[in-house]
Structure formats: C-alpha cells, structure tokens
Amino acid sequence: MALFKSNAADASPTGVEQVAQATQASQNDDLSFLGGGVSPDEVAQALQGLGSSIAYLSIAQNLSQAVRDGKIKAGVFYNSATGEEYGTSVVVTPLAFKPIWQERDKQGGTVGVYEPYSIEVTKMVEPGKKIPSMTNPKTGYSVLDTYVFALASVTDNQILTFTPGRTSVRQMERFMRDASMVKHPVQSGKFLMPHQTVWRLNIGSYEDPRGTFYCVSGAEFVSYVSKAFFTGIVTPALEQKTRLLIAGPAEGEV
Predict the structure, then answer these.
(1) How many angstroms separate the CA atoms of 151 and 50, rounded?
(2) If you placed Cys at 165, which of 80, 205, 226, 250 could pair as Cys (CB 3.0 to 4.6 Å)?
(3) 175-234: per-residue pLDDT in tens?
C-alpha cells in the first residue's frame, strides 16, 4: 500500500502552459547559453550553497493558520509571503540546497535552525519506524533532520525557500538526485546543472490517526530552462548565492 496518493491528476494548470511555451526548445534553438555541460562532481559542488530568499513555499495543511482562516484550501502549494496559491503542483528550477536541523515546538512552529550535529540531541526509534526521531534535551522539542531548498518559480518568477517536513524529505532528496542526472541535450556524456532544468513538484495525501495530511509526492522533469528565464531570473539569483541560511517554517508538515 502506498504511503500517500498523488493529487497530480487534479493539478492546477497555473503555470504549466507557460512552462511548455517558455522552456520547450526545438532542435533549431540556440542552446549556447546552456554551456558545454559538466561532470557529476561539478554538479554536486554547484548545489552546495544557498541563495537568499524572501518568500517561503509552503504546503497548506488542514491545521495551517491560513486554512483555518479560510484564506486558502488544504492540500495546495502556496507562497506564505504573498498568500498566492499555486495549486497541487508547482513548476520550479532548483537553485541550491543545504542540510539543516530544524527544531519545532509542539504546534509545529520553528523555534531554531542549526547546522547538523551542532547541538546535543537524544535519539529514539519509534515503534514501526526505522529512522530515529531526535529531541533537544534542553527544551523537549523535536528536531527534524531536513534541508532548506532555494527554488525559482517558473509560474511567477519568485525565488522561494522550501523546508520539507518529515514526510516530504525523502521525495525532495530523490528530486535533487534526479535533477543532478539530466543529460546535456547536445554535449554527449555531459550533464546539465540542476539550475538549468525545470521540474513540476506534486502534492500527495496520506492518512494517519490525526487525519489527512499533505506532502510532496514526487517530481517530474518538464524541460530545460528557456534563455529568458535563465538570464533574467536564475543567473541573478546564483550571483547572489551566499552561505547565509534563511529557513522558513514548513507550515504544519510532519
């Protein structure tokens, strides 16, 4: 039985048609802006770092404040800075990611973000689970081993920060692995940088004793970036890349 079911079939068309027009290139297109391709080691090195972001990509849960206030429906991606709803899928270009430990209070709010292994934690394997849960012994709050991602939204040209919850982490890890293995469309034996590709992240749902929850259910490759998006949005974001960590709350994900 699957852990969650995908809502991709109900995905909002917002941005998808734009992606097909903006990123799908023909064999006659000028692909010189993509460069000559890189090795897998160069891909891995480029992903280390994080561009600063002012907007958070969130997944609306039934208990999210925006849902309880009637501003947005559960089970969709939304921009928690602007309130814009993206639907059950969002089309993005991955820019960078960074591993973090995120401490959350009992309501799921972020109370601390740390470099991995920089604070003392206690670990316990819960019944039926293989991965141990972590707790900060000084506060009693849970500590999540996760990442912060910098993404460029093709839908609205926003640079977004996404911090996946426990159920979304593995799918986001798979997404970054797949984004690191896209072959160059012209140069044989070479790969594109992840920030030269476009992907659709989908939302799925799953049930637990507390009710219905939503998470990232997978990522689909769409195409490589258009020249306009690459030069106008991606390149400026990469030029501002710093080691500064800006992590947003994961809005009730578990």
Answers:
(1) 10
(2) 250
(3) 999 999 999 988 889 999 999 999 999 999 999 888 999 999 999 999 999 999 999 999
